[in-house]
Write a structure and sequence with these properties.
alpha+beta, four-stranded antiparallel β-sheet, 9 strands, RVT_2, 2 domains, 6 helices, flat, three-stranded antiparallel β-sheet, DNA/RNA_pol_sf, Reverse transcriptase Ty1/copia-type domain-containing protein
Length: 218
């Protein structure tokens, strides 16, 4: 989707102070917005409501279990639409229905068609005659580069069995001396979050990632 916040229509009354541009700045005057703007905290919700309403008009039904998934069943087959902010996956049992859905969405929004699914949200897709393989090689390499571990040697186990992570409060209560405490807990939280996302295709990392996250939530 292109310029997702600039589509006309709001689902709640939003006012803002007058600003420089085509409007004259006046004291004690506000403007009522007719469409969302970037930087507005209500904009993502407005966009989701706009897109959801459009799909419902096209006779899609929103999944009760995952509100990002929309399903349309006809006598010709079934179409699935998965949305993540302004990214969208379209799949189905009929190529004709898929193309029809694309054409209908093009009439409502300005969209880009990237063709056959190969990469989506850090997950890579490889097709064969037998199956569809998913992996996160590119995502994993980027994570290694971000943490400056490109020169690190491979390990036989997913986690160091000799290390023990504790919280600072635990160390103070037990009077345990721990070298090199984390100076920025936010960085550690970010890395652990990315590791947990990597476990979507690397299940062998799940136990180690969960162990690393315990001091964060303790």
């Amino acid at each position: 989707m292109c310029s997702m916040f600039f589509y006309k229509g709001t689902y709640m009354m939003i006012f803002t102070w007058t600003f420089l541009g085509n409007f004259r700045v006046r004291e004690n005057k506000v403007c009522r917005l007719t469409k969302s703007l970037y930087g507005l905290k209500q904009s993502p919700r407005q966009w989701n409501a706009k897109l959801s309403q459009t799909l419902l008009k096209l006779e899609f039904k929103q999944s009760e279990y995952d509100h990002s998934l929309f399903i349309k069943k006809t006598t010709k087959g079934m179409v699935l639409v998965f949305i993540y902010v302004d990214d969208m996956l379209i799949s189905g049992s009929s190529l004709l229905l898929i193309e029809e859905t694309k054409d209908q969405l093009k009439q409502a929004f300005k969209i880009k068609n990237f063709g056959e699914l190969k990469y989506f949200l850090g997950i890579e897709f490889v097709r064969s005659k037998q199956c569809i393989l998913t992996h996160q090689r590119k995502y994993a390499l980027e994570l290694i580069s971000e943490t400056s571990l490109s020169a690190a040697k491979p390990a036989r186990t997913p986690i160091d069995t000799n290390s023990k992570l504790t919280t600072r409060r635990y160390d103070e209560e037990t009077q345990m001396k721990k070298p090199d405490p984390l100076t920025d807990q936010g960085v550690n939280q970010l890395i652990v979050g990315k590791l947990l996302y990597l476990t979507m295709t690397r299940r062998h990392l799940l136990w180690g990632s969960n162990i690393k996250s315990i001091p964060i939530i303790a």
